[in-house]
Amino acid sequence: MMNGDLDGSTMEDDAVQMISLVKGRAEDTADGDDDDDDDDDEASSSAIQKGHGEFGNGTASQKQVAINIFISFVGAGMLGMPYAFSLSGWLLGSVSLSLVSMANVYCMLLLVKTRKKLEAEGHTDVDGYGDIGRIVMGSKGEKLVNMCMVIAQVGFATAYIIFIAANLYSIAEINRAYVCFGCVPLLAILVQVREMKSLSPFSLVADLANLAGLSAVFLQDFEYYHHETIVAVNFSNAIYVIAVSVYSLEGVALVLPLESSCIDRAKFPSLLMKVVTGITVLMIVFGCSGYIAFASGTLAPITLNLQGEWASFVKLALCLALYLTYPIMMFPVNDVIENMFLSETSKKPSRLFRAAVVFCTALVAYSVPDFGIFLSLVGSSICTLLGFIIPCCVHWMVFKKEMTVWETMLDAALIGLGTVFGAFGTYGSIMKLFDPESDGGLE
C-alpha cells in the first residue's frame, strides 16, 4: 500500500496512518481508552479532522501524498458515473465532471489559503475543517461543519449497504431486507472498536479488494460493447450528473490533514491539482466506457450490468471492500454522534447506541434501494454545502478586505450557484425517491 520511505513502519502501521490521515477517520490513539470518559465536542470532532502519526507531522513525500489523495477520492461513487453519463450524455457528463472537479479543487485550496491566513494571525490550533469553522464563525460554525461531516460520513456508509444489497440480489436474488439487516450484527460489533489500529487489517483487505474490483469492472466494459447509438448531450438530466459528480469527488474534509502531512507544504496546491486532474480523467474514461458498453441499458451501480461467474467474483470483491470499509468510515463519527444525542452520564458504555446507529443506516439503505438516486441526494445536499458553500463563505469572511473584484465575484457565484443547485438537486432527488416509476438505474 505504501512504499518503504517511512523508517520503522510496518505495512500495518502504514495502513493505519494512511487511513487516519487520508480518510479523515482518526482519533488520537495515544490517548487510548484512558481518555474515553473525557470526550467532549472538541475532542471528538478532532477525530474527523486530524491526521496523527508520522504523516500528521509533515513527513510524507509528494509520492506518498499523491497515493493518499488517489485512494481517498476513488471509491463507490465512481461506480455510479456510467449510469449518470447514460442519462446526461457522454459529452455533458464529461464537461460537468470536469467543471465540478475544478470548482472542487478551488474550494479545497481556499481552505488551505484560509488556514495560512489564520496561522499568520497567531492561531496555532487550525488542524482541520471544523477548527476553521470555530475560529471564523464561532462555536456554531464548528458544530455546523462537524455535523455536515458526520452526515456525509454516515451517508457514504449507508451507500455501501445499498450497493451490497443490490449486488447480492443480482448474484443470488437474496431479498434486500435479509442483506441490509443481515449486515447489522457483525458491523455492530466492528463499530465498537476504540482504536483505529485494530481496524488496519480490514482497511488493507478493503483497499486491495476495491482496487481489484474497479480494475476488473473497467476491463470487462470492453467485453460488452453493444454497438448502440449513444447520446452526447441531454440537458434534462444535468442536475443529476452534477450531483453524482459532487458525491464522487467529495474530499474537502481531507485537504487540511493532507496538506499538513507534506514535507514541503508549498508544493501541495500543485500536487493536488495534478492528482485530482488525473482522477477526473480516470472517472471520465470509466464513465464513458461503461456507457458505451451498455448504452441505454446502463445501470447504477455499473456492476449490475456484468454477467457470468467472473462478474460474480468482481461483485463479491467490491461488496467485501465496502463492507470492511463501513466501520472505518464510521470510526471518527461515533463519538461525535454520541455527544450530539447522549447525555454525559449515559455516554459510556455506548455499545447499544452504536449498534442502533448501524441499524438505522441499514433501515435507510433498505428504504432507499436506488443507488443512483441516493448518490444524487447526498451529493446535491450535504456534499454541496460542505464542499462549496461553506469554504467560499469562510474565505470571504477572512479575506473580504483583501479580495479582488474577480475573487469576490467567484466566491459569490459559487455560493449562489451552490445554493440554487443544492435546493433543486435535493428536491429532485427526494421526489424521485417517492416516484414509483423511478428505478434509479435498477431493474
Average of pLDDT: 84
Compute the CA-based radius of gyration. 21 Å
Largest sheet: number of strands, sense, barrel closure: none
Distance between the termini: 37 Å
Short description:
With 443 residues, this protein is an all-alpha fold. The chain contains 18 helices and no strands. Helix 2 (41-49) packs across helix 7 and helix 2 (41-49) runs antiparallel to helix 15.
Explained architecture:
It contains 18 helices and no strands. By secondary structure, the protein is an all-alpha fold. Helix 4 runs parallel beside helix 13 and helix 5 packs across helix 13. The protein starts with 10 loop residues before the first helix and ends in a 10-residue tail after the last helix. The N terminus is likely disordered.
Provide key terms for this protein.
mainly alpha, 443 residues, 18 helices
Question: How are the SSEs placed, and which strands pair?
Answer:
Elements: H1 11-22, H2 41-49, H3 53-56, H4 62-73, H5 81-88, H6 90-120, H7 129-172, H8 176-182, H9 184-190, H10 200-221, H11 238-248, H12 255-261, H13 268-294, H14 309-330, H15 333-341, H16 351-367, H17 371-399, H18 405-433
Helix pairs in contact: 1-10, 2-7, 2-15, 4-13, 5-6, 5-11, 5-13, 6-11, 6-13, 6-17, 7-8, 7-14, 7-16, 7-17, 8-16, 9-16, 10-14, 11-17, 17-18
